[in-house]
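Quick one: structure for this chain?
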Amino acid sequence: MANAYLIYCRAGFEKEAALELQHFADQYGWQGYIKAKADSAYVLFCGEDLPETGDNAPKWRELVFARQLLFIQNAEPLRLEANDRISPIIAALVGQSFKELELEGADTNDGKSLSNFFKSITPALTSVLQKRAILRKKSPKNLHLFFLDSTAVYVGYSYVDNSSTWSMGIPRLRFPKDAPSRSTLKLEEAFHYYLDEETQQNWLREGMTGVDLGAAPGGWTWQLVHKGLQVIAIDNGAMDKALMQTGQVEHLRVDGFKFRPERKVNWLVCDMIESPARVATTIASWIADGDAERAIFNLKLPMKRRFEELQHCKELMEDILQDKRVHYQLAFKQLYHDREEVTGYLYRR
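Got it. Here's what it folds into:
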């Protein structure tokens, strides 16, 4: 069992990450306390004998504001001497084994400044870990060394089946040169996060249809068109000319909250800068009424009550879906390319 949970989050969202951890602590009966510092990009829940697996353990995909979930044996960072940083790390790992090694720092300017240090220490550290049989390909856990600076490190681990596959939970996506806006990366990341390869092949292909609410200039529409979908783009603003020339987009200048398609579509996507509660109820109503099969959408959260507003929106959506007796799956995540928002995914089961 662990003595602390450590999660990475977007800098500035430590409060929300902490509130969420406490929410699950109350739900699962974890005994402990939160350690969080503004703009640090990580949060700790400290306790004793905290569960790592089973029904009462934290689930990475349930934690909306967590980019990565680590389990820590010692709630205090390991202190390292400048003349020998490797020996204390090895001593802390005696009797354990891990599949892969990740050297990480917070997603802040200070954390990013450690990149050269990581390059210098990685070869020697990896060699020692391999010689001591601490790195083993068949282990269900990955080793994470989360450095606060070059002399202080949290020694933790993640479970392969309960963590992000991306280093630090950050996908490395390239901005498509012909996409109309950088918001396109938010939807691309959502596809990678929410849909496995088979689901992407089955649900993002030619012959399928979608609606994009608040489409202009077309960043999210571009992703659907790129996958082969026919798209109805709803927005009073102008759409990208090259995107319209594909012949796959019908642009309607109508109210996104009032529009409904004549026929059911496969996908509804929405990145409108509107009240999160209004967006949430609109999305839920589309799915409940059978106007769309699946939806990916963003909720722009108010700065002072982000966690509370997200819980409110979730309850609103669940009420609508349950009233219509819909069997559904609903999930949220603050993705790397999100800013003051979270991305939701809703579909009929």
